[in-house]
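Sample 3 of the quickstart, ligand zinc ion:
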Amino acid sequence: MQYDLIIRNGTVIDGSGLPRFRADVGIVHGKIATIGKIRDRAKEVIDAEGHVVAPGFIDGHTHMDAQVFWDPLGTCSCWHGITSVVMGNCGFSLAPCSEKDKLLVMRNLERAEDISPEAMEAGIRWSWTTYPEYLDAVDSLPKGINYSAYIGHSALRTYVMGERAFTDPATPEDLEAMTREVRDAIRAGAMGFTTSRTRNHQTPDGQPVASRLATWDEVRQLVGVMGEMGAGVFEIAGEDTDINPDLREDYLGRLKALAVDTGVPVTFGVFHRRYAPDLWRQYLATIDETAAAGGRMFAQVHSRSINVVLSFQSTTPFDKLPVWREIRKLPLSEQEIQLRNPDVRRRLIEAVYNTPRESHRPVGPEPRKANFKWLFVMDKATPPYRSLADIASEQNKDPVEVFIDLSLDKGLKQFFIQPLVNENEEYALEMIKHPRAVVTFSDSGAHVSQIMDSSLQTHLLSYWVRNKQAVTLEEAVRMLSFVPASHWGLNGRGLLREGWQADVVIFNPDTVAPMMPELVFDLPAGARRLKQKATGIMGTIVNGEVVLRNNEHTGALPGRLLRGPLAGR
Ligand SMILES: [Zn+2]
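Result:
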């Protein structure tokens, strides 16, 4: 046989969880043709000696809806072995929406997901109104990896109701129009329908995003459309019921009933919170109960804590304080001079303790009021990290002073992290191992200057597999490939099998790891973002073509739009 590509001498970990074996992998016409000893020739050969050959990883929770227009590679996810993503989560899609109304849709995205409106304005060529037209637009874009997309409730509601979407319940006519759009979207290949009901999702002026105005009945009817059609997944950024047991019981009961009544798979993020350490167990118990009652439901979990990443280059936890605000509006070089001035330092430190905080409530991954036991110095890409409280007491300094001094030592580039959820890593591990959980939730494409979670896959491989030996490599690969492919129905992907799509990642199990993030200004209109690459990844292959070699783009753009099961029927 004449192969397009042969990966020789690697160790195959096929994604099923079965033990590794040494074999060559031969690829023809974008598909895996042979796994075994291959004596034939190929146009291209990769020697993977000492490396693992695995199915490309899949991330089910991204927000690349806007980014896909200016970044075909799907960074930073592609640098961590990702070959397919699902976007449009949490109710945020860019369709349906006509160009003249795009500011309304961007209003939903801007603060809730921290996507710069200038970048969206400069980077997106708006060529659609309906959801099927949006999918066609994505289909026609050059792409390095594979993308699939949900239709989001906030966009849908805004499209049908205009300004009323942000204030009113839907009328029967509104609902009928929304129902029609969801049906069209699923028929065109949307992966499903998503919504948000969390107070974490606000517009820049502090109003709820449009989906939060929906009654539960509205949600039920829209999910019901997918139930009738027999296709589509429902993703929800859930209600904030954590501290109120009655609200929680009511909410989880509604979710369970929704899954059982409609037959639609329901999915959402589950995180541990240090303020309410055992709640996640109830969420996972509900998922098990739903399965027993005949519904489908799965959790999306993270491989580590979700952290706000802070630095003088982007945001510090003190920026809203008036004294700090004065200094922070200066150019960084000026700030550096000021920070060395003893007088200024004293005032900055005092301000942290003496200024009554404004009534601003941080939402999503906006920095929290500093608790120095929970503010860590990010001096390397993987934990353990030391808290400012610990360093301060060791050096007999004020923690704010430590914050300033460490920053000055690094030319104001020192990163600090403030964990928002999943602080207890033993719980995080338990969640990773739950049989109805998917390790996903990078949020890639969103919160681009606030958090950096596109590295969650390489964190799993480096931290949990190699450093802690808490998960086997075979288990980890399965978690990142076959499990998400199965939940989102990405047929023919997620396993290395003859006849399956050749999405492959080749990595060194001894060195694969996230690198330190950096702050860059490379978005359209010069908007900033955190960028994080990984070491130890030799090759990333999408639909049979090498897209990244040692994490550098080869120029190939073989990615596709992956449409849901009803497309083309
Ligand atoms: Zn999200």
